[in-house]
C-alpha cells in the first residue's frame, strides 16, 4: 500500500518525466524484482515540535569512518512495518549493524504502526528509526507539521558507504527521494522501487483464452466474459479504497498526460471538476460497477481478503502495487502465474499503454526526538549500501532505490519478473503522484468518495465534486505553496 516517485535522468526533483532506467534495467533484468507498500489514512495527532539533540549518552567520537559519531555499546530502537516484505531483512540489517558498530537493537515488527507509535510520539519518546508503512502508517505531513521528523539532509549529504567520494543522495535512482519531500525537505526515505497497476493470473487467462487487454474496452470485454462464466471481473480491496484509486488516478494520468497529474498535485481549481481526463477516468471505473463486473462482496473485504479470493480465481483482475506477490505468497497457488498489467487505455489517451505509475515507496523516518540519533543516521546511511540493499533483495524479494544496488547473483521470485518487463517497456513513460504524501486529508477525502462510488451510493459527477472540494480545502493551507511540481 503506498506511493512512490517517478524518476528521470537529470537533476529535476519533480519526478514527472522518465526514470533513470539504464541503471535500473542493468541490475533488474537479471533479477525479476520491484515492489512496495504504503497507504495512509489513520490520523496521527502529535504534540509540539521536536529538536535533534538526541541523547548525549549516545554520542560517540566523530571521524571520517564514523561521520555521525556512533557510540559502541549504545542501543537502537527499530520499528518495522511487518507487511508484504516481512521484517527478516531488518533483522539481518540489525545483526550486521551490531557486528560493525557494537550497537544492539530493540526490534519491533508490527502492522499497527499508528496504534503502537502515536502514543510514543505524543509522549516525546519515539523510536530511533521507523519503517512507517501499511494501512496504519502515521501521516507524514502531520508528523512534519508538528516538528517530529528529522530533516534527512545530513544523511543524504554524508559520504556513501560504497564510494566515499560520492554523497549518499547521488547513489539513488533519480526522482526516488521526491515522495519524502515536505516543503522542499526530505523527511522520509522511500526505500523500495515499486510499480502500480492491474494484476491477473496467467493460468486463468490461458485457460479462458483471454489476452492481455491494452484498451479499456478490451478490459471491459474480459470482465463481461468473466461475469458470464460466474467469475468477477474486477476485485478491489473495498475496505481500503486506496487501491481502487490506483485505477482512477492511473487512468487520469494516462488520459490527460502529466499535466493532468500535476494539476492534482498542484491543487489546481480545475484538477477534477473541469478536467476531461478526470471525468473520463471516473466514468470508466464506474462502468465496471454499473454493469455488475465487480467481484461479488469485494466492497466489504479487506485488502488481503479480496486478494485471497482473487488468488482463488474468483476475479479476473485486481489493482495493487508490486508488493502484492510478497503479501500473497501463502495464498497464491504454485501455478497461478501472477502477472502485472499497465492500466489499459481510454480512447484518446495522451500516454501510451506501456506507461506506468512507478517510483519509490515504503517510507523510513527518523524522529527528531530519537534518543540515538547518531546510530539512526548511520543505520539509514548503511541502508543505502550495496551490502544492505542486497540483503533486502534476498530477504524481501524487491529492488531498492539504490542504483546498481543488488548483487547480480541474486535471484528473486519469478512473479515479479513481469514488473521488471513492464518497467523496461515503459522506458521514460512513468509518472507518480505526490499529493498522497503532501496532503493526507485530501487523500483520505478522495478515498472516501471512491468508497461511496464503488458502492453505488454516489455517481461520477458527485465523486468529481467531492474530489475537487478536497483539493480546494487543501489549497487553503498557506504551506501548500511550498509543495509544487513544475
Distance between the termini: 26 Å
Alpha plus pi helix count: 18
Oligomer: single chain
Beta-strand segment tally: 11
Percent of residues in helices: 25-40%
- Structural class, from secondary structure content? alpha/beta
- Mean pLDDT level: 88
3D shape? globular
Radius of gyration: 22 Å
What is the H/E order? HEHEHEHHEEEHHEHHHHEHEEHHHEHHH
Low-confidence stretches: 1-52
For the sheet with most strands, the description reads: 9 strands, mixed
Strand residue content = 5-15%
Would you write up a description of this structure?
- This protein has 486 residues and is α/β, with parallel strands linked by helices.
- It contains 18 helices and eleven strands.
- It has helices spanning 21-28, 88-101, 113-122, 140-145, 153-156, 202-208, 216-228, 242-256, 258-265, 276-290, 303-311, 324-327, 373-383, 386-396, 417-426, 435-438, 440-454, 460-475; strands spanning 75-81, 104-110, 129-131, 181-182, 185-186, 189-201, 232-235, 315-321, 338-341, 356-365, 430-431.
- Strand 1 (75-81), helix 2 and strand 2 (104-110) form a beta-alpha-beta unit.
- The relative contact order is 0.22.
- The model is unreliable at 1-52 (pLDDT under 50).
List keywords for this structure.
alpha/beta, 11 strands, 13% strand, 37% helix, nine-stranded mixed β-sheet, two-stranded antiparallel sheet, disordered N terminus, single chain, 18 helices, 486 residues
Amino acid at each position: 500500500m503506498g506511493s512512490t516517485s517517478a524518476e528521470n535522468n537529470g537533476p529535476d526533483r519533480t519526478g514527472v518525466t522518465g526514470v533513470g532506467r539504464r541503471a535500473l534495467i542493468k541490475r533488474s533484468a537479471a533479477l525479476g524484482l520491484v515492489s512496495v507498500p504504503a497507504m495512509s489514512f489513520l490520523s496521527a495527532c502529535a504534540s509540539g515540535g521536536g529538536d535533534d539533540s538526541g541523547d548525549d549518552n549516545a554520542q560517540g567520537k566523530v571521524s571520517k569512518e564514523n561521520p555521525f559519531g556512533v557510540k559502541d555499546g549504545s542501543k537502537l530502537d527499530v520499528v518495522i512495518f511487518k507487511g508484504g516484505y516481512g521484517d527478516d531483512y531488518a533483522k539481518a540489517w540489525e545483526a550486521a549493524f551490531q557486528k560493525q558498530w557494537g550497537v544492539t537493537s530493540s526490534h519491533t515488527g508490527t502492522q499497527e504502526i499508528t496504534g503502537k507509535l502515536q502514543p510514543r510520539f505524543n509522549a516525546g519518546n519515539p523510536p530511533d528509526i521507523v519503517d512507517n508503512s501499511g494501512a496504519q502508517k502515521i501521516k507524514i505531513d502531520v508528523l512534519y507539521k508538528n516538528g517530529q521528523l528529522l530533516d534527512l539532509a545530513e544523511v543524504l549529504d554524508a559520504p556513501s558507504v560504497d564510494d566515499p567520494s560520492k554523497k549518499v543522495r547521488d547513489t539513488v535512482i533519480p526522482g526516488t527521494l521526491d515522495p519524502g519531500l515536505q516543503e522542499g525537505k526530505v523527511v522520509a526515505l522511500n526505500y523500495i522501487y515499486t510499480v502500480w497497476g492491474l494484476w491477473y493470473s496467467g493460468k486463468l487467462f490461458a485457460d479462458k483464452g483471454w489476452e492481455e487487454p491494452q484498451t479499456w474496452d478490451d478490459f471491459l470485454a474480459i470482465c463481461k466474459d468473466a461475469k458470464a462464466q460466474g467469475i468477477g471481473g474486477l476485485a478491489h480491496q473495498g475496505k481500503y479504497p486506496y487501491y481502487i484509486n490506483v485505477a482512477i488516478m492511473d487512468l487520469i494520468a494516462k488520459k490527460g498526460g502529466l499535466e493532468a497529474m500535476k494539476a492534482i498535485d498542484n491543487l489546481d481549481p480545475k484538477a477534477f471538476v473541469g478536467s476531461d481526463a478526470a471525468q473520463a477516468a471516473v466514468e470508466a471505473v464506474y462502468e465496471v460497477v454499473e454493469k455488475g463486473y465487480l467481484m461479488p462482496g469485494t466492497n466489504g473485504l479487506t485488502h488481503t481478503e479480496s486478494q485471497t479470493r482473487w488468488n482463488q480465481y474468483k476475479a479476473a483482475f485486481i489493482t495493487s502495487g508490486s508488493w502484492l506477490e510478497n503479501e500473497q505468497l501463502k495464498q497464491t497457488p504454485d501455478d497461478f502465474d501472477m502477472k502485472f498489467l499497465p492500466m489499459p487505455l481510454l480512447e484518446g489517451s495522451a500516454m501510451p499503454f506501456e506507461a506506468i505509475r512507478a517510483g519509490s515507496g515504503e517510507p523510513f523516518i527518523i524522529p527528531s526526538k530519537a534518543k540515538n540519533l547518531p546510530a539512526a543516521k548511520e543505520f539509514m546511511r548503511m541502508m543505502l549500501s550495496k551490502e544492505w540493499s542486497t540483503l533486502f533483495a534476498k530477504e524481501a524479494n524487491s529492488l531498492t532505490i539504490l542504483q546498481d544496488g543488488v548483487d547480480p547473483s541474486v535471484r528473486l521470485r519469478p512473479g515479479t519478473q513481469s514488473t521488471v518487463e513492464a518497467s523496461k517497456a515503459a522506458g521514460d513513460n512513468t509518472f507518480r503522484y505526490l499529493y498522497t504524501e503532501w496532503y493526507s486529508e485530501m487523500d483520505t477525502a478522495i478515498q472516501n468518495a471512491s468508497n461511496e462510488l464503488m458502492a453505488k451510493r454516489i455517481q461520477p459527477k458527485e465523486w468529481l465534486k467531492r474530489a475537487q472540494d478536497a483539493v480546494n480545502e487543501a489549497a487553503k493551507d498557506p504551506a501548500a505553496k511550498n509543495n509544487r511540481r513544475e
